[in-house]
Amino acid sequence: MTLWQEWRTLPNLLSTLRLLLVPVFFALIIGHQDSFAVLVMAVASVTDYLDGYLARKLNQVTRLGQLLDPAADRLYILAALIGLVIVGYVPLWFALVLIARDLLLAATYPMLSSRGFGPLPVHRLGKAGTFALLYALPLLLIARALVSVEYFIIPLAWAFAGWGAFLYWWAGAVYLQQLASVVKSHPRNSTRLGI
Hints:
Blueprint: H1 3-7, H2 10-30, H3 34-57, H4 63-86, H5 92-106, H6 109-113, H7 124-145, H8 150-185
Helix pairs in contact: 2-3, 2-4, 3-4, 3-7, 4-5, 4-7, 5-8, 7-8
């Protein structure tokens, strides 16, 4: 299947829609349109569920989809973090802790590529960390939008955020271990593609 054919599958079109909504989501956060930002995040969450479900159900699991899905999740987390830092609702240090992990892993891609590998597969710890963060950040937006329940939502949001950050870095450590294994067992310029 060509890249164009992969992109035209329904699951990948849903992932593309999710990606296209990232700048809208970011603009809503920095524009103090918290209720609409939560609505966009809800739509993104539904498409996130549907693209995976449909890919399996319709037997349309593709390499492009395996790249688009985590990329969209990371971009939503990044957009939410930067937006919430800009409006003063999340401390800069917290955003930097999460962004540093992604930058560290991005720096490993040339090493993998030089051995004929693409990005490492998503680990369940990474999925759990992303899941927690994708709950934490919308909860912080909901707390901003619904001040009357802020006292209840903010501790819950920060519990998810703390757990998500911990799992995010733990998954990062697992990815680095996998990278070390790849580097050790595959010489540079290997012709092997994917893992």
